Amino acid sequence: xxxETGIGEGVPGPGAPxxxxxxxxxxxxxxxxxxxSDPGGTGAGLxxxxxxxxxxxxxxxRLTPTQRRIAHSMVRRAADVPFLSSVELAELAGVSQPSxxxxxxxxxxxxxxALRKHLREVAPAEQAAGPASYNEYQQAVEAEIENxxxxxxxxxDPRPVQRAGRLLAASRPLPVLGLRAAASQAYGFAYFxxxxxxxxxxxxxxxxxxxxxxxxxxxxxxSALLCFALPRHPREVVxxxxxxxxAGLSVVTVADSAFAPVAKVSDLLLPAAVGTGLAFDTxxxxxxxxxxxxxxxxxxxxxAQARLEQFDARAAARGLFVE
Length: 323
Description:
The protein has about 325 residues and is α/β, with parallel strands linked by helices. It is built from twelve helices and six strands. It has a six-stranded parallel beta sheet, with helices on both faces. α3 (about 85-95) crosses α4 (about 95-105). It is globular and about 65 Å long. The model is unreliable at about 5-45 (pLDDT under 50).
């Protein structure tokens, strides 16, 4: 079973099971979803944006890892893709030019020129001209701004995040997983979540005991696990999520792409791209998506506001913060 990605697909239609019904609303790369019957269109519930139209085009196709890499690169540069040659797209994705051609054929086109023609017809847009005067640091910031804009487009359909908020709020305790590069994301979420959720358990160190901690959470009544997964994706994260699902937990994952390796072991995947313009990746969009998830979780915790007010009162009495 693949992940339902939080990009508008997998939304139950009339007469379909509710959003929390077992097995409902699950689709993902290589698994036909509602958008698969609308190639090139926006798909039910998808925001009308170049990135969303591209995502809808890829749904329902079984893509190889190389092809998923091309698809991910196209989504990230959705406004520019209709103007890129096959060589330019290959360089963008870090693959060979023949791989781009095979990708277009896998989508049902005669070749890449036919795919690019289709993209220009269904998603006409003016090619964005980036200022040539930007230095490498400014370019990294501009790239993060584009990632945030892309995230805003995905959040035009709030239902996946709202569903995630319900799952996280209902889980007592709530395990939050993030290893290596994603450890800080998990820590930040857990820090704030603990102010409104009665039992948050941070899993930010790997090793042989991580399965024991998941078992303990399940015995205590946990029903869901939140994972932050960022490149490079540790094999241990994939293995741990698989173990969590086998233990009966619903896995909600914030990842850098709907095509990330963790998609196959997630029940609900919410994508937020990372910046790659510097020596180390930047993760502004995943961090912001984590805060959005906190907001959605608070909406389903009736005593969240009271808990925050109690904390503020205690902090003031202790003189905890310098005003």
